[in-house]
Amino acid sequence: MSQLPHWNLDSIYPGLDSREFANDLAALPLLVAQLETRLISDTEVPGWLVGVLETYQEALDTYETLMAYTNALLTVNTNDGKAMRALNKVEEASLELKGIHVKLLNVLSGRKEEVRKVLAEDQDLTKFRFVLEELLKEQEHTMSEAEEALAADLSRSGTDAWGRLQEAVSSNADCLWDSTTGERKTVIQLRALAFEADRAVREKAFRAELSVWKQHEIAFAYALNGVKGTTITLDRRRGYRDPLQRATMQARITDQVLEALIGTIENNLVVFRKYLRAKAHAFGMKKLAFYDLFAPMGTIDKRYSYDEARTFIIENFTRFHQPLGEFAALAFDEQWIDSEPRAGKVGGAYCTSFPLRKETRILANFDHSFDGVSTIAHELGHAYHDKVTSGLPALLRHYPMTLAETASIFSQFIIFQGALQDADTPMQVALIESFLQDATQTCVDILSRFKFEREVFAQRVQGDLMAGQFSSAMLDAQKASYGDALDEHALHPYMWAVKGHYYSSEVPFYNFPYAFGQLFGLGVYRAYERNPEGFGGRYDELLLRTGQDMAPAVTASIGCDITSESFWQESIDVIAAYTERFCRLVGYVGE
Question: How far apart are CA 98 and CA 59, in angstroms?
């Protein structure tokens, strides 16, 4: 097959040495200085607030564009020293922007009655009411400027350092794989073998992986204690009830929404366990082990050329919503997608936005498989979301993690259904099993991670935990989530060492937004099925609003009540229907 395309970044900046890049980099500290001057001005509130918002948002757009560009260069060539130096310059220039955020919060709070009066009366400023009220709420959970500055400075040698330790050890730890040849494998390589068809290889890799984590468990335990301890201390100082309250505020949801989401998943664990039992049945086993969760099933013989992937995605997107199809065509035609795997390029996939240019770019590693097609569709969903919101000011564009996966999950589901239409039985098995595998990860495994983190925070208040306590808490969480559908003697006690998101103090409970995104995306699709007429316009309006209100208000605009378990149940029902179809395909007639 022909060489896969690389992205074209010329419309963002002609290069790191270009005048345009240098000008924007130089503009960032000037914008911060201008913002500081505006903050202390005694101008009347309407004009003062307009000036503050304009300057702050221009600084945000400039920083995000510079950061996205330098990071884009580095991720396609991790050995690019020039890009690394440029990235460091952007990070250095942004420090003052991050530092002035607390001052912005304090000044807004000091003039909040005046600000609220203007927001109620000035039509041009009313649109900022929600985000400014959110900033005022954040200020209530902010320490003094000196304390926040000290906390930010200490994080570099504290929680950030603990996170870097976990990342460094995880990426370099290895073990002997083949005593005959002396071949060694890193723990990253061992985890990748979970997708191997040969069960003996999967089990060997799993056992070897656990032995590696065991060797480093003390270092990971100290790191996790440091991160969680700091999180508890700072959240208490900032007046949060607990880290979960901060997480729900960041996600723009209420306790009621979280309880409805988690409660519905717990009430439907039988659905996911039935799928796992059916998969075990198909393999001729009584129960799956943890290392069988990603075992491939069925066959998808079709290999997609890049042009075939392009056509398939555009046709299926257009069938749902013509503007979505047109946007996908634009992204392909304008070389916005970097598709070729190559030395020095990072793995995985992501979408990044350049707000000053109102453009996006997608990094992928296309392997000509259906999964490769689905991944591009997923990232195009993110890109379309950014396109819909690109005309908004920065503060109205930033949506929470809970809503960030809406368009991507929806787009991926469109492609999944398109592929099913003409699939033979082996391909149906592979497609549906892959869908159920993903759903199980984002619901059941995420539930186990949520339970684990909640328990760790509860225990960490009393003091440091030993490695064995972390592993015990993880096993308890996995047993509660997977139940007897997995062999309890072949669970993964070291998932707390594997997952880097536990080692971030900035984003506690990083887990539940993934379950939210998966089920909300399916819920939106159910809304489309119930009332397809004119749905594309309502879909765009939903995406447009994701950064402008609390998640319950945003989702209500499309008829979805996320405060109710009945909404989440409809999403689970989609998964349940495919579970039943999967059971029929593999001949499973159990419970």
Answer: 11
How far apart are the C-alpha atoms of 14 and 18, rounded to whole Å? 6
Residue type, 383: A
Contact criterion met (CB below 8 Å) for 323 and 299:
no
Q: Is the pTM of this model over 0.85?
A: yes
Query: pLDDT (tens digit, 9 = 90+) per residue, 252-289?
Result: 999 999 999 999 999 999 999 999 999 999 999 999 99
Using the CB atoms, write b or e for 386-424: b if 16+ within 10 Å. bbbbeebbbbbbebbbbbbbbbbbbbbbbbbebbeeebe
pLDDT for 326: 98
Q: Which amino acid is at 82?
A: K
Residues 108, 115 contacting (CB under 8 angstroms): yes
Cβ(89)–Cβ(63) below 8 Å: no
**DSSP class of 338:** E
Site of tokens 């509130």: 45
pLDDT of residue 394: 96
Tokens of 169: 């050890």
Cα(324)–Cα(383) distance, integer angstroms: 10
H or E stretch covering 482: helix 467-482
483 Rama class: left (phi>0) / alpha (psi -120 to 50) / beta: left
Rounded to whole angstroms, how far apart are CA atoms 303 and 369? 6
* Residue among 527, 567, 551 at smallest CA distance from 265: 567
Distances (CA, A) of 203 to 4, 213, 483: 35, 15, 20
Residue 1 is predicted with a pLDDT of 53
Going by C-alpha positions, the residue among 141, 304, 329 that lies closest to residue 235 is 141
The residue ranges of the chain whose pLDDT is under 70 are 1, 591
Q: Name the residue ranges covered by the structural domains of the chain.
A: 19-140, 174-215
CB neighbourhood size of 462 (10 A): 7
CB 35, CB 52: distance < 8 Å:
yes
Contact 457, 232 (CB under 8 A): yes
Angle between helix 217-237 and 145-157 (nearest 10): 180
**CA–CA gap between residue 362 and residue 350 (Å, rounded):** 6
Confidence at residue 136, expressed as pLDDT on a 0 to 100 scale: 95
Look up residue 378 and give its two tokens. Answer: 């997923």
Structural tokens at position 449: 């991670």
From residue 366, alpha-carbon distances to 3, 53, 304, 372 in Å are: 11, 41, 10, 5
Distance CA 28, CA 282 (A): 58
